[in-house]
Amino acid sequence: MAKYGMLIDLTRCVGCHGCTVACQTKWDLLPAVQFTRVHRYEVGTFPKVKGGVITTQCMHCDDPPCARVCPTGATYKRADGIVVVDEQKCIGCRYCQQACPYDARSFNPEDQIVQKCYFCYDFIEKGEQPACVATCMAAARIFGDLEDKGSEISKAIASKKAVQIKGTSIYYVPPRNLDPSFLPANFQEPGAVRVWQDIVHPGGKTVMGLAAGAVIAGLVINNIKGGGKND
């Protein structure tokens, strides 16, 4: 089974925002909803100052906390490693946003749902590349199967000595002048996730179950009453 990931070569990225625009166009996103974000940084002190860009997105974590806190199962991890959101199941509670250690999710105020990078899984299933990869004029993005040692991404990770953000499916090739602290941190589960998983979520399921039972009971009672009147 393939496990998909992405390498972002910051020595090639020019910060053109092409990846952001391509993603917004492909998914017909609101201007405020960005799956791929471009951040600028500066290092050094005047007059010896250097700058650059870092792009971030959903990291498609190995054990995504967003999926564990979702009360409806709308967020889940596919067998190929891609973390997705079933927008038909999303109720807009935004728990996943709070659980995400990378602030990679956006709330769509019009549809009242949370959205994120999906690695353009529908493109992948047709043998195509994600929109951000296909549009990158600097060839700063490489996408592929991390399990296939002969894939382009696996070869690039080895030859470019890419840095993996541990616990995720994203690799970076940082420029020489970049302090590693500017890169996204290695995965670390937010403490609130454990509280939700062990205490709030089970209680919430009980409450939801009782509420559902009450609704069903009400429907049955109304049906019985209605039947009595018809007789």
Automatic annotation (TrEMBL):
Keywords tagged on the record: 4Fe-4S, Iron, Iron-sulfur, Metal-binding
Keyword check for 4Fe-4S, yes or no.
yes
Database matches in Pfam families: Fer4_11 (PF13247)
Q: Which residues does the UniProt record annotate as the domain 4Fe-4S ferredoxin-type?
A: 4-35, 49-80, 81-110
Q: Which GO terms describe its molecular function?
A: 4 iron, 4 sulfur cluster binding; metal ion binding
**Protein name (Swiss-Prot/TrEMBL):** Tetrathionate reductase subunit B
**Species the sequence originates in:** Neomoorella humiferrea
